[in-house]
Specification:
This protein is of the alpha+beta class. It has two helices and two strands, in the order ααββ. The protein has one domain. The mean pLDDT is 82.
Length: 46
């Protein structure tokens, strides 16, 4: 299960909102993206 899907289920938001929120958290330095733009990419807490 992808982080986006987990986020969607935890916070009852759409895929678009989850993606937007995760991108914002990455920009703020809370998450670090694996750098991959394909399915299976991952985030980790900094």
């Amino acid at each position: 299960m992808t982080l986006t899907k987990v986020y969607q289920e935890l916070f009852a938001v759409s895929r678009e909102t989850a993606s937007r929120d995760l991108a914002e958290l990455t920009e703020k330095g809370i998450f670090e993206n694996s750098g991959s733009k394909v399915a299976g990419s991952f985030f980790k807490l900094k």
